[in-house]
Amino acid sequence: MKLLFIICLSLITNLMASDNNNWVELFNGKNLDGWTEKTKEGSFRVEDGAIIGTAKDGMGTTFLCSNNNYGDFELEFETKLIDNKLNSGVQIRSRLQEPDGKQKHPAVYGPQVEVTGRNFEKNQSGYIYGQAWKTWLTPKEDKKAHQFFKDGEWNHFRVLAKGNQITTWLNGNKIVTTTVPAKRQQSNPSGFIALQVHGIKKGTGPFQVAWKNIKVKELSSAQ
């Protein structure tokens, strides 16, 4: 009986270790290796083990993008709005659209996990917005206001993207499972992960947002 217990404990330990080994740290806490700011320049830096994004007057929206693409995955990260007037987000399965004649920079498009400091009594962080599609992917009837986002503190997000289903959690609270419309799923079955610094009005800012403990675990079709 004792031998059976030891064998079972060993199997459980090995399974847990295997699961932990599947996680990949996207941010090493020291520099921006593995990331590229693709739409603008100079808005991101590393300070005290965190990525700091700065929204500057007249800069517009910019993104720090992972160099690798991801399709089905589990993502975890922590974020803090240093200035709660700032709106932000984390892109998943996102891509670049080359600029047309009116644009100076390529546009990032794809699903975005909303991170907002606006209205803490009726917060919408964790819902899915369609960046550059100018519409929410989470249906209006599923967007229920909550108070899970903590002002001035680190907030833990978990994102599970599997097929056309994206489920989000904020500080341990499930926010929503969003079914991505077929057209959007077809155009963005995979893509980069990106940190957003939202553009701000002229004469305001600078405003800052921070991220740390960013890690991803890719999922196979069998999971």
TrEMBL record:
Cross-referenced Gene3D superfamilies: Exo-inulinase, domain 1 (2.60.120.560)
Top-level taxon in the UniProt lineage: Bacteria
Pfam families, A to Z: 3keto-disac_hyd
Position of the signal peptide: 1-17
Single annotated GO MF: hydrolase activity
Domain 3-keto-alpha-glucoside-1,2-lyase/3-keto-2-hydroxy-glucal hydratase: 23-217
UniProt KW keywords: Signal
Protein name: 3-keto-alpha-glucoside-1,2-lyase/3-keto-2-hydroxy-glucal hydratase domain-containing protein
Species per Swiss-Prot/TrEMBL record: Lentisphaera araneosa HTCC2155
